Amino acid sequence: MPNLGCECYLPSNLMPESKIRIGLLSDTHGYWDNRMDHYLESVDEIWHAGDIGSFTVLDAMARIAPVKAVFGNIDDHKMRCELPETIEWEVNGLKFFMIHIGGRPGRYASGVRRLLQEKQPDIFICGHSHLLRVEKDTSWGGLYINPGAAGKHGFHKVRTLLRFDVNSGIIENLEVVELERVR
Questions:
Q1: CA-CA-CA-CA torsion sign (153, 158, 161, 162)
Q2: Kind of pairing, strands 45-48 and 20-25?
Q3: Given a cut of 50, is residue 111 above it in pLDDT?
Q4: What whole-number percentage of the chain has pLDDT above 70?
Q5: Taking the domains of the chain in order of start, what are their residue ranges?
Q6: d(CA 72, CA 53)
Q7: What's the pLDDT band for 13 if we cut at 50, 70, 90?
Q8: CA 66 to chain centre
Q9: Per-position b or e across 125-148, b if 16+ CB within 10 A of its CB
Q10: Nearest alpha carbon to residue 24 among 154, 132, 112
Q11: How many CB atoms lie within 10 A of CB 170?
């Protein structure tokens, strides 16, 4: 019998998980352009942290990769019927939690600190502020990520999104993509 390597005999639930490439954005406010297609074409999944603004944006993302998204405060009742307010899931050994209005370390939105302590995610993702921020928060022990805003509506000066890999319980190759300055 030929030696096929031990990985051939592992049940699927014991197989090593492969690296997954993520595109993360928020606050598109109904705006989509071809630059986002280009910067997201290499990802395995797209995650959107709310204020999507229109189903055309959801459709544009879904043409590129599978989408995980939450609704935001500007999203209408139809979008709120299609998307949850919060999502929690696991990828390659990391537990994620996403909501649109989350605040920031030291100034979380009402009830968010309790949710973080209760759910104990490794990574907390939110949007709403339009301010790009990634930092470790020792108050609950995880990584805080806000990808900034990818749309044109709001007070942000630069449209941004993030790309990163989730690999064996760690975030790798985190990159900030600056799409353009907002006028």
A1: negative
A2: parallel
A3: yes
A4: 90
A5: 19-181
A6: 8
A7: very low
A8: 12
A9: bbbbbbebeeeebeebebbbbbbb
A10: 132
A11: 13
Residue range 52-91, pLDDT digits in tens: 999 999 999 999 999 999 999 999 999 999 999 999 999 9
Report the predicted TM-score, pTM, of the whole model to 2 decimal places: 0.88
Q: pLDDT at position 18, please?
A: 84
Spatial distance between the Cα atoms of 35 and 152, rounded to a whole number of angstroms: 13
> Given a cut of 60, is residue 6 above it in pLDDT?
no
Is it true that domain 19-181 has CATH number 3.60.21.10? Answer: yes
What are 95's strand-pairing partners? 90
Q: Please give the single-letter amino acid code of residue 45.
A: E
Alpha carbon distance, N-terminus to C-terminus of the chain: 67
Spell out the SS3 assignment of the chain.
Answer: CCCCCHHHHCCHHHCCCCCEEEEEECCCCCCCCHHHHHHHCCCCEEEECCCCCCHHHHHHHHHHCCEEECCCCCCCHHHHHHCCCEEEEEECCEEEEEECCCEECCEECCCHHHHHHHHCCCEEECCCCCCEEEEEECCCCEEEEEECCCCCCCCCCEEEEEEEEEECCEEEEEEEEEEEECC
170-181 and 123-125 strand pairing? unpaired
Which two three-digit tokens encode residue 182? 């907002």
